[in-house]
From TrEMBL:
This is Surface antigen-domain-containing protein. Residues 130-467 form the Bacterial surface antigen (D15) domain. It is a multi-pass membrane protein. Its main location: mitochondrion. Keywords: Membrane, Plastid, Plastid outer membrane, Transmembrane, Transmembrane beta strand.
């Protein structure tokens, strides 16, 4: 029904909002195609309970707004309209509600390519949504990378489970992550995860269990430190993530702040071969808009992990090394510019390939990662004058970047000594470049000068191209 332009509806609502009023009947329209809705009636009625209980027009209005938000959170409606109508004069305190809903397609397919680290990846998937009318989402996906990485997963999501503002998530997966280029090993993980997350995105709790295999599939080139980690492991871990994001816009924020903290405890299953460690990581960003053409951003990230021994609880076990697949890595646009991906931190010499001459040059080294890391970045961001950059939402930046990474366990040194080494081995770089936001992360083209580096770091001075996948960059 079109609104009369001569009527001040807001003023009229203010006059009658406290008058007694009840919703006495609800009419649920069919889908736009004339077919009944797939969504079960009890899911819709559950969100309308507060509407039925309202006793004034103001209460009905507030209840309808809440019901609309809750129904939207189910993720199955493309459009929803709610219209209140007056009933005949013999029921002056009653009204009717017309609920007009349009559902999304029951299926969805997608395909995409993206770059992660040094690997190009192709992804394809298909999903069934609300097929039984319970607002469920069933998605199957596969990924293949140019370095032999692959992933196959089947996931089930149930939003607003039991009416609570939370999403239940169950997943089965088989992952193959190739770290051959940087660390000479391949990780295969078969297992599943069960989790629950708040609809606001602030809280997420997940339990993961899977069988992991680490191996040198390239054959007799991995360093001794990597070979010592080869074998089968059981990973049973609980992970809690807390996040607050008060930045003004996604993709290319200009002001505000955000914090994410992730706590993981592994070893929550009995038996030999179970990985046992505690891990904490924190990311934060603060942005200040100085003018319409300039804003400053300050980003920090830090993490620590240590293994623990069931027989020595509550003490940690600094002698036992952590698993290389769970450690932190530094280097590349996602963490420390001016260095190659995973190019910072502890390394070990790879074994020579069969038939390789002894004088073939410096020996290649495997990145081992670390148990304690931190990185910081300060940047000035500014728009670029050419219309093409504006059309792409690209901007320029000048930055200073620093970071450090060390191992805490498995190195036969006391932890305080390792912490001192962490403070004495910071790497620093400065540079300038162009940033292009994309759906898979920020593509950066930077010119970088490295101010300080450590022995065996893989430095990338001059022009550096790559994707920064973290939302805190």
């Amino acid at each position: 029904m079109a609104k009369d332009p001569n009527v001040d509806y807001q003023a009229l609502f203010e006059q009658i909002k406290t008058a007694p009023c009840k919703v006495s009947q609800v009419e649920k329209a069919n889908d736009v195609k004339g077919e009944p809705l797939r969504t079960k009636p009890h899911l819709i009625d559950r969100e309308l309970e507060r509407v039925y209980a309202a006793s004034t027009l103001e209460e009905i209005h507030a209840a309808l707004e809440e019901a609309g938000r809750n129904l939207q959170q189910l993720g199955v409606f493309k459009r929803m309209d709610m219209l209140l109508n007056e009933l005949p004069e013999d029921e002056p305190d009653a009204c009717s509600l017309v609920l007009d809903l349009e559902e999304k397609n029951w299926y969805k397919v997608h395909a995409a390519t993206y770059v992660q680290g040094n690997e190009n990846t192709f992804e394809a998937g298909a999903g069934l949504h609300n097929i039984t009318g319970h607002a469920e989402h069933l998605v199957a996906s596969v990924e293949y990378g140019t370095q032999s990485s692959s992933q196959a997963s089947l996931s089930y999501e149930q939003p607003r489970v039991l009416g609570f503002p939370a999403v239940l998530d169950a997943r089965l997966h088989r992952l193959v992550n190739s770290h051959q280029r940087a660390s000479s090993f391949t990780e295969t993980l078969r297992g599943g995860a069960l989790g629950v997350k708040s609809l606001s995105g602030r809280h997420s709790l997940q339990y993961e269990m899977g069988w992991r295999r680490l191996e040198d599939v390239a054959g007799r080139v991995a360093s001794r430190a990597v070979l010592a980690q080869a074998g089968d492991y059981l990973k049973a871990a609980a992970r809690y993530t807390f996040m607050v994001d008060n930045r003004d816009q996604p993709g290319a924020p200009t002001q505000g702040w955000a914090v994410r903290a992730c706590t993981e405890v592994a070893g929550l299953a009995p038996g030999a071969g179970s990985l046992r460690f505690a891990k904490q990581q924190i990311d934060a960003q603060y942005l200040i808009r100085l003018a319409s053409f300039l804003n400053l951003s300050f980003t920090a990230s830090a993490g620590a992990m240590l293994p623990w021994d069931l027989e020595r609880l509550p003490r940690v076990s600094p002698v036992q090394p952590t698993c290389i697949a769970d450690r932190f890595f530094l280097g590349g646009p996602s963490s420390l510019r001016g260095f190659r991906t995973k190019g910072v931190g502890p390394t070990d010499t790879r074994r020579p390939q069969a038939g390789e001459p002894a004088d073939s040059g410096p020996a290649k080294r495997d990145a081992l990662g670390g148990d304690l890391y931190a990185s910081v970045m300060a940047a000035a961001n500014f728009p670029l004058p050419h219309p093409a950059f504006k059309a792409l939402n690209a901007h320029g930046h000048i930055f200073a970047n620093g970071g450090s990474l060390v191992q805490l366990s498995g190195v036969n040194q006391p932890i305080p000594q390792r912490v001192r080494e962490f403070g004495n081995t910071w790497r620093w770089s400065v540079g300038a470049g162009v940033v292009l936001p994309t759906w898979v992360g920020r593509f950066e083209a930077n010119y970088v000068a490295v101010l300080s580096a450590q022995e065996h770091d893989r430095v990338k001075r001059g022009l550096q191209l790559g994707f920064a996948s973290s939302i805190f960059l």
